[in-house]
C-alpha cells in the first residue's frame, strides 16, 4: 500500500512540475488543523514530509493561522507549538487577523503564483482551493500523509493550455523574463515610445588629421619634346691658312 501511495504521489508531483512549473524546495503552507491531526496520529511533519514528496521542502504558515490557535485555547496548545516551529510568511492581514481558512486562500490568489502546496484538514479551505488551478492539496488520513489528485479545475486549465486557449505559468515566466531583458516590464508601457539615447562616441582619430594640400599638376610635355631626340650639333674646324 505504501509503494502504491508513493507512486501516485510521484505521478501527481510530476504533473505539477510539468504543467505549473513547481520546483524544489517545495513550499508547504500549513494550518492548525493539519498540525492537530499530525499530533493525534503521531506524525512527525518535518521528517515525513520530505520523504513523502521525495524532495526538499520549506514548511511555512501565516500569522493569522497562529492567532487563530491562540484564541481557541488550551485544547490546541500542542498544535500551536508545532505550528510555531515553521516559517511565518507575510500575509496582508498583519494588523487585522482573519480566520486561517480565509488567510490561506488569499495567499493563493487566483493562480497560486508562489507555487504553494497546502496542508490542511479544513473543509472550507479544501473546497476553495479546488477552484484555483495548480494547487496541490495535502491531508492526513489513516495515520498517513496523502497528496490529493489534481483537481478538475487544474485538469481543465492544462487542457485549455494544450489547445492554445491559455498561456501556461512556465510560458508566462519566460515572457516576463524576456520583457525584463528588453526593458518593457513596466505597467502601461511607460517605456514605450521613449527614444533610447545614443552614447556619445569619441571622434575617429583618422578624421582629425589635416588634409594634405593638393599640388599643382605638372604640365604635360610637348609631343616634339616627347617624340624627338635632341639633335647633336657638330662644329667644323676652320682650316688655318
Task: Considering the chains and any ligands shown, give keywords for the structure.
Rossmann fold; nucleus; single chain; six-stranded mixed sheet; alpha/beta; PIN-like_dom_sf; rRNA processing; 241 residues
What do you see in this structure?
The chain has a domain at 29-159: 3-Layer(aba) Sandwich (Rossmann fold). The chain has 10 helices and 6 strands; from the N terminus they run αβααβααβαβαββααα. It has helices at residues 2-20, 32-40, 45-53, 63-71, 77-83, 100-108, 123-129, 152-162, 169-182, 223-227; strands spanning 26-30, 57-62, 87-89, 116-119, 137-141, 144-147. The chain has a 6-stranded mixed sheet with strand order 3-2-1-4-5-6. Helix 4 packs antiparallel against helix 6 and helix 6 packs parallel to helix 7 (123-129). The chain is elongated, with a radius of gyration of 41 Å. The model has no long low-confidence stretch (mean pLDDT 82).
How are the SSEs ordered, and which strands pair?
Layout: H1 2-20, E1 26-30, H2 32-40, H3 45-53, E2 57-62, H4 63-71, H5 77-83, E3 87-89, H6 100-108, E4 116-119, H7 123-129, E5 137-141, E6 144-147, H8 152-162, H9 169-182, H10 223-227
Parallel strand pairs: 1-2, 1-4, 2-3, 4-5
Antiparallel strand pairs: 5-6
Amino acid at each position: 500500500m505504501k509503494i502504491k501511495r508513493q507512486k501516485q504521489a510521484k505521478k501527481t508531483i510530476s504533473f505539477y512540475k510539468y504543467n505549473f512549473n513547481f520546483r524544489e524546495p517545495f513550499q508547504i503552507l500549513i494550518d492548525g488543523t493539519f498540525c492537530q491531526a499530525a499530533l493525534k496520529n503521531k506524525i512527525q511533519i518535518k521528517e515525513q514530509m520530505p520523504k513523502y514528496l521525495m524532495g526538499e521542502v520549506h514548511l511555512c504558515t501565516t500569522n493569522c493561522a497562529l492567532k487563530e490557535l491562540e484564541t481557541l485555547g488550551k485544547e490546541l496548545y500542542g498544535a500551536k507549538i508545532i505550528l510555531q516551529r515553521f516559517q511565518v510568511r507575510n500575509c496582508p492581514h498583519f494588523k487585522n487577523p482573519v480566520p486561517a481558512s480565509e488567510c490561506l486562500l488569499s495567499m493563493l490568489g487566483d493562480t497560486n503564483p508562489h507555487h504553494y502546496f497546502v496542508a490542511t484538514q479544513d473543509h472550507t479551505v479544501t473546497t476553495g482551493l479546488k477552484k484555483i488551478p495548480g494547487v496541490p492539496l495535502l491531508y492526513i488520513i489513516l495515520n498517513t500523509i496523502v497528496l490529493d489528485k489534481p483537481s478538475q479545475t487544474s485538469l481543465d486549465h492544462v487542457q485549455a493550455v494544450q489547445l492554445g486557449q491559455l498561456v501556461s505559468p512556465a510560458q508566462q515566466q519566460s515572457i516576463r523574463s524576456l520583457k525584463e531583458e528588453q526593458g518593457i516590464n513596466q505597467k502601461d508601457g511607460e517605456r514605450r515610445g521613449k527614444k533610447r539615447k545614443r552614447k556619445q562616441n569619441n571622434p575617429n582619430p583618422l578624421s582629425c588629421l589635416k588634409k594634405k594640400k593638393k599640388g599643382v599638376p605638372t604640365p604635360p610635355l610637348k609631343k616634339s619634346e616627347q617624340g624627338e631626340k635632341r639633335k647633336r650639333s657638330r662644329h667644323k674646324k676652320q682650316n688655318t691658312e
